[in-house]
Amino acid sequence: MTSTTKITIAVSARALFDFEAENRLFREDDPSAYCALQATRLDVPASPGVAFPLVRKLLAFNTGESTDVEVAILSRNDPVTGLRVFTSARHHGLAISRAIFTSGAKPHRYLAPLEAQLFLSAHAPDVCEAMAAGFAAARVYPAPGMSMTADEAELRIAFDGDSVLFSDEAERVFRQQRLQEFNAHEVRNARLPLPPGPLKPFFAALCALRGRCRSRVPVRTALVTARSAPAHERAIRTLMAWGVAVDEAMFLGGKDKTPFLAEFRPDIFFDDHVPNCESASRLVATGHVPYGINNECLSVLH
User: Fold this and answer.
1) Which of 140, 173, 199 is closest to 13 using CA atoms?
2) Catalytic site residue from 68, 160, 168, 271
3) CA 55, chain centre distance (Å)
């Protein structure tokens, strides 16, 4: 993981562009039908996918003098299909020049040399393998989240707290000892910062980028968490200790996050709970972060 405040994101072709119709033909043991269909469409730009608004707004930070954000395509597609991916990027005005096409091989091996702080993919096994290898990653839910258009001028990102920005330390207490002991634990440790979670480096780099390039793209962030008072204090003090801040904090006490996200209108929302992600993805672009106690069964499956 690079220590620079430059943001580097790796994104799969299916997360960036709408390849859902083609993907219905895909078979792991025989991708020939999928590849053949893509080969007939090499000069047909694909429509934007669920991660497209996020990528477009991040790339808008770059100027002729500086490159503060780099987006690389990291895809299981074959190099021929890669021609269509580049055609689509060029058609939509995305200044992406770096891409790796693995023809079905596991892509997460290239996250280290890319120095990527975040990997976005629609393929859950690739995301789980990236996380197991120590890289921040999220599985994006294709298409439905595109139905709600985020603010065109402002980059908006919403984060869950525990197991996303923070470690799953407190979440383990909640799962194993339930709410009363969780609240008591968090009150006792209110002034002890939580350990960082998988998306903390990305969030910190985003905050640094906003500080350097405030005039280029407005940025608004939100912490959207099931925590409530008195467990709110430790979350806020942890961010203070890290020297970062969110613009909005929603302590929902277990209330459904989806209607609140519908009002915030993020370009992407990150959460570690699959049910939360499935609900939110019907309205907003959503990334599932397979980390922590709520996802231990997934690590066994993959």
Assistant:
1) 140
2) 160
3) 11
Q: What residues pair up with 99 in beta bridges, in sequence order?
A: 73
Contact 272, 174 (CB under 8 A): no
- Which listed CATH number (3.30.70.640, 3.30.420.40, 3.30.70.1020, 3.40.50.1000) goes with 155-301? 3.40.50.1000
Is the distance from CB of 134 to CB of 196 less than 8 angstroms? no
pTM: 0.92
Strand partners, 11: 73, 120
Residue 151 falls in the annotated catalytic set: no
pLDDT, residue 23, reads 81
Same fold, 7-142 and 155-301: yes
pLDDT digits (tens, 9 = 90+) for 216-250: 889 999 999 999 999 999 999 999 999 999 999 99
d(CA 293, CA 212): 36
